[in-house]
């Protein structure tokens, strides 16, 4: 700040004054450094705080939802009336950014991709009002977590595909790993906040006795929260690598096709197309319809939020017209 203001002044000073000002500013600068150093000596050098104790990552078996927990640091006795804070940073190993949380609690929960490792670090923060000076930070306590990733990568399932049909029926399907032994079979487990523990699929889709998909039961209060899935497996001949997935159900909705598509030809030019919304839990205002209209080998695509559309025909009557209507959930 000071340096900046001074240099701004240079423009209106003559050379002699300039030299003086520069000297002046250097003195001030030195003084400031001394003062800062002094205050460091008088408070921060004396006040040390330890990192939190027993920092650990606990896996409660929710397929990716982990607990980061710790205990108060040792020798905080001098700061009994002081609210200690913690700065927590965590990420999946290999991801670019750390998530940062400042908290007064001794536990923090979040979802992670268990296909990868997790790393986290935490330090204690003593706010300035407790130290008669600036905030004091401890060193970091660090911890990493890997779920036991047994088996070769090639034994993982492939092409996992999950669709939430009409916001009602969740269905996932997969292919077995490349070159896995014939006796390999896979199992699907899932969890979301609200379930007491991870559940296994109760209705597998099978081919030749092998599980290749899962029809989920009715999922109560499962929207707008992370939905965790693990597909693991077993074989007599080798361990099978589990795969983990996280998604939110409202993002994978696929509506049913429109019901009762009807065509009314009013005159040779005017055609009206109408359809009903599919039955189900999705409100009408959430749909957009796409109409594909083929005439004279020319295809038009248009969209509407209404459940009807008028089309002015341009070719003459002898030509065949073709309409396709589909809907999309907004
Ligand atoms: C802060 O200042 C108060 C009053 O001057 C004093 O009683 C207290 O011990 C000081 N605390 C620290 C941590 O230096
Ligand atoms: C598959 O995952 C479930 C849920 O985490 C676990 O209970 C089960 O033991 C695992 N099975 C194998 C074969 O690893
Ligand atoms: C129909 O269209 C064709 C080709 O555009 C034209 O030759 C023919 O005269 C039209 N017929 C009528 C009844 O308009």
CATH topology of the largest domain: Immunoglobulin-like
Q: Which compounds are bound in this model?
A: 2-acetamido-2-deoxy-beta-D-glucopyranose
Fraction in beta strands: 35-45%
Q: Count every helix, treating DSSP H or I runs of 4 or more residues as helices.
A: 3
Helix content: 10-25%
From the N-terminal CA to the C-terminal CA, the straight-line distance is 51 Å
Summarize the structure.
One of its GO terms (molecular function) is cytokine receptor activity. The chain is mainly beta and 330 residues long.
Protein model, in words:
By secondary structure, the chain is mainly β. The protein folds into four domains: 41 residues; 93 residues, Immunoglobulins (Immunoglobulin-like); 99 residues, Immunoglobulin-like; 75 residues, Immunoglobulins (Immunoglobulin-like). The protein is built from three helices and 23 strands. Strands 3, 4, 6, 7 and 8 form a five-stranded antiparallel beta sheet that branches. It has a five-stranded mixed beta sheet with strand order 13-14-10-9-17, with no helix packed on it. Strands 12-11-15-16 form a four-stranded antiparallel beta sheet, with no helix packed on it. A hairpin with a 6-residue loop joins β3 and β4. The radius of gyration is 32 Å and the shape is elongated. The N terminus is likely disordered. The chain binds 2-acetamido-2-deoxy-beta-D-glucopyranose (NAG) (3 copies). One 2-acetamido-2-deoxy-beta-D-glucopyranose (NAG) binds next to β11 and β15. Its main location: membrane. One of its GO terms (cellular component) is external side of plasma membrane. It comes from Equus asinus (Donkey). It is found in: Membrane. It is a single-pass type I membrane protein.
